[in-house]
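Appendix C. Worked example: DUF4139 domain-containing protein
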Amino acid sequence: MIGKNVLVRRYPEHKKPVVCEIINEDYSYSLVREIETGHYFRVQSNLIEYTDEPQPNTIYEVSFHPLPANDTFIVSYVIKNIRWQARYTLQTYPDRSTRFQIIVDIINSSPLNFHFNQTHLMAGDIDLTFGTSSSLVDSKTQTKDDIDYSGINLFTCINSSLAIDPYSILTLPIESPNIQIKTIFTYNLIISIPSLVLSNTTSMISNKHKLQRVYQISNSSLFLPTGHLMLYDSSLNVLTGEWHLPTLTEFEKYEFKLGEDPDIMLEYNRTATNDQKTNSSIITTNVLIQNYKQRPINIRFKSTCESSMICLYYDDKARSLGSRLNYELYLKPKSEVLFSFTTIRLL
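Step 2, the predicted output written as structure tokens:
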């Protein structure tokens, strides 16, 4: 439609559209030139009136690369009205197993048919890959590891032929053999000290909490683009949560928290003794974690002091644990664990 004269309303309530020439256009805004004044301005695409049915413009960015062997050319171009996006599903089973599935939607928003013999799904800033002296894939390169993709990442290569109808979405499952999922139940106990008074004081605090559910994704097989993740409990066949997965590189680990679990309870009581003479405090904490599930679970228990405090942790055998506490525990079905630790607030 570039170069075509159209009628443009400057704002939705404008009753008398003016004749303009389209200079540049995209899905949201177009740059137009008013014929009468010669002035340029940007306008929302839905404020443009056409005398004929508009046809979408297919925009190509082309670069030519000579091949010394037979003096032929490779043409690289971007089709603006066809795109793809990834989405993910994570299914959990009663036997602690999980299934992580990658799904790709190839979206054709044009009235054209497309047929591909081989498809490379790339993700990243595609504008970085085109220039006067750069190419998407060097024709001399034979292996994935040798390719410089110049700002984008290769997600996967589909070697079978694909046909995409106009205004349609083609959905494809992608194999992910080396992606491991681990479920961890976690709680972080923040230690706070009551204000010191004129004499030594002892205070006691007790509380009860549910543990948070953490999913750890270990990605050792391929680059994963950002996408929507849906979690299902396969034993009940219900949707249990949603998450937006960020871009993950190969060999990267990623964790996210998603709700509390009612079948795992943490109960603690804490006794704090403040000594005004030494301006110090000793806190003894007893922790009970109960697993009501019919399967074993992984527990991650952490404890830190408030940011304004300097503390040292000791276990129940008076062994120093440093300035914070980190326990990784494994609980059998229908079992519990009880442990204690001491925290000393320094001057």
